[in-house]
Structure formats: structure tokens, C-alpha cells
Amino acid sequence: MNDAVAFPLDEPELSFTASGDSLVRRTILPSGVRILSESVPGSRSATIGYWVAVGSRDELPANYGSTHFLEHLLFKGTPTRSALDIAISFDAVGGEHNAMTAKEYTCYYAKVQDRDLPMAVDVLTDMLTSSRLDPTEFENERGVILEELAMADDDPSDVAGERFFEAVFGAHPLGRPIGGNPETIQAATRDAVWDHYRANYRPQDLVISVAGAVDHDLLVVRVTAALEAAGWDLSIPGAPVGRRSGEGVEIARGSALTTVHRPIEQANIMLGVPGIVAADDRRAHLSVLNSVLGGGMSSRLFQEVRERRGLAYSVYSFGSSYSDAGVFGLYAGCSPSKAGQVAELMLAEFRRLAEEDVTEEELRRAVGQLSGASALALEDSDTRMSRLGRAEITMGEFIDLDETLRRLALVTVADIRSLAGELAARPLSIAAVGTVDDSAFSAIV
What we know:
The structure is a single chain. By secondary structure, the protein is an alpha+beta fold. It has 2 domains: 11-229, CATH 3.30.830.10; 257-441, Cytochrome Bc1 Complex, Chain A, domain 1 (2-Layer Sandwich), CATH 3.30.830. The chain is built from 15 helices and 14 strands. The chain has helices at residues 66-73, 83-91, 117-130, 135-153, 156-169, 182-187, 190-200, 216-229, 283-294, 300-308, 339-355, 360-377, 381-395, 401-409, 413-424; strands at residues 5-6, 13-17, 23-28, 34-39, 45-52, 96-101, 106-113, 206-212, 257-261, 267-274, 312-321, 326-334, 397-398, 429-434. The strands form 3 sheets. It has a 7-stranded mixed β-sheet with strand order 2-3-4-8-5-7-6, sandwiched between helices. A 5-stranded mixed β-sheet has the order 9-14-10-12-11, with helices on both faces. Strand 2 and strand 3 form a beta hairpin. Helix 9 packs across helix 12 (360-377). The N and C termini lie far apart (48 Å). The model has no long low-confidence stretch (mean pLDDT 96).
């Protein structure tokens, strides 16, 4: 396969061979349901995901946290299956099942042996289409979610991450916590979550992706039968929901500095800037930049902060891209007395990328790291399933391993410096959790 393969929303059938001789197929049913598969030679298992392109950013002020709340509730039973029945279905065959709520989508997924894929289709379809949202289970799950939020609040790196996103994105919906907060979960009502469910879990919203040992034609037949058995009328014409705009928006910074005092042994520091959108042609440039700066043990951050100075155990950089915005950040956990010094060092290394060319050796090493990691990740059908689902929901195009490697190989020293210069010029935000206060960062804020 050469270049990316577009996924037009008005083309009912697509089929092509990707790297490694995997066969990718896509069918759009007349109702708007999209079914995608990647058949991988030699696989004996399959991972299946049911996706809807609604995440935490899509919630109204009255129902913050509803997307994550609903994710929990869809495991709690349908008219034909109890929560225990759902769990037993997968445990009895050694399968795995779970879900994830993100800022722009929700996915319910399972990994099973090839022979158990029909069962996974039936159970996941039942969960997604026919959840009862039982009032008693609703209240029980409210308690579970509050405990989940409490667990996250006990993790200082999680707290730093939430405060960092709020600091960078400000009032933009991407700055909100995915799971809501204790106040919004306490205030959530079954009616509001039910309305959220009925408004967003419809044929035109549903994307199903499967990777591994899968026969596409049989998959389409099984999915169609399961959806019709659940009461969905697939004969009603419907177009798939449109994808989000890929145009970037201006981000008004929430704050330059946020500190959260906690009596803990380390200061957890995140600093960074608005990043690039998911569809930006320079995403390969960002991957290489991130690898050079903080993507591994040979990266600049790791070598300078940990190896040469012994100031941190964990130090790295990261990038997250969404449809209309992104973030690029750096993290370190260190002694509170060293927080200011570590933050200055991280920022200096970040800015140095914009002021000086990386070496050809650093470029070669970063491209090699990313190329190898990309290839190894695709040994797992989970990664392939996720790649397929995100390609349909977010990008509208499929990029296989060969094309990924080609794009990485095209990145130049000048590309990295140019992008670093653009990022470094954007408003800086810092979030820190621990026994630190604002004065620790006075030299850089």
C-alpha cells in the first residue's frame, strides 16, 4: 500500500491490502453503521471494538461526567443478560473485555479466540444497544465512580495531569476531566445519562472495528443480525455522522502556573504548551521531536535530568493531539527542593530544540526507535483494532506500517527545529503537585 487510504463517508464498500499482507475492508450499512476489519494472516485471536464518536468534550454543563458514567453502566445488564452474565461470557473463554472513555470518543472492546468472536459480537451489541440503566445499579455505580475518582485524586501524577490540561486548555472543553469530578457525579441523574445515551448511541454513530482472525463477510452478517435482534431497524436509511472539523482553534491559556499542595515525598511537575491537531501533516515531525527530547532512555531529558544530574527517576515528554487542538508537555517527579531546578532544566532542553539543530545521530536514533516501536506494537491485535477505529472516527484515512515508516524517514533536522520553534513560542503552562508553592518556579513564570 502506498500513501494513506481515504475513508469517504459516502462509499459503502472499501477493500485493500496493507503492509504484511493484511486485508482491510470496510462496509457501511444503509443505516449508517460502519463495520471495519483487518484480517491478519496467522492470527488465532481477534480484538473487536464498538466505538461512538462522543467523549467528555461533548457533554453539556448539566451532565459533565455522563460519558464516563455511561461507560460503566453499559456493563451492568440488559433485558437478556445480567452484569454477571456479561462477565461470565468472557471469563468462561479466557477472553478480556473492557471500555475506555476519551475526550473525543468512547470504545467498548473485547479480545477473544477466533472461535469466540461471534459471542463477543452478540454480547457487545447487547450491551451497547440495550442497556437498562437500572436505577439501583445507577446508584451503586455512582459509588464505584466516586471511588475511582478518589483513587485518581490520591495519585499525584494524575492530579498534575488534570491540572496541566486545565492550565493549557482553559475554558476549552478539552481541559475538562474525562470522568467529571465528585460534585458533577453526585449531581448526575439517571434521566440525564439516559438522554445522553439515547442521543448518541444510534446506528449513524456506531463504528465497529475488528482486527486479527476475522472474516469480514461473516462479521457483517453477524453484526447485522445482532443489531436487528436488539431492535435496531437497519432498513431506515441514514448517513454516518460527520467527522469533527480538523481545523485548529485558538486556545486561551487557563493559567501560567498552578500548584497543588500535597504532603508527599516528590513534586510532580508538568510543563508545556498547546500542541498540534490530529490531522496536522507534521505529526511525524512531532513524533521524532518527542523521541529526541523525552521519548526514551537516550533522550535529552533522561540523560540531562536523570543520568547526568540524578535529579529525577521519571522524566519524559509527550504529545496529545485532538481534532481542533493539541498539547505538548514534559513531566518529571523530583524532590520538592529541586522542583524549580528541574523545571528550568526541562524548559531549557525544550527551548534548545528550537535554537539548535539536533544531530544527525539523534535523528537517526529517534527514527529507528519510532520505527521499531511501531512495528512491534502491531504484533498485538488490540493496537490494530484501535488504529482502525481511530482512522475511521478521527482521521478519515488509514495509514499502514509501510507508510508510517516512510513518513518517519522523511523527517529532517530542519523539520524538528522548525516545529520546536513554533511550539516554544506558544504560551507556557506549569502544573505541580507536592510540597511546593509558586515561588519554586519564579525564575521561569
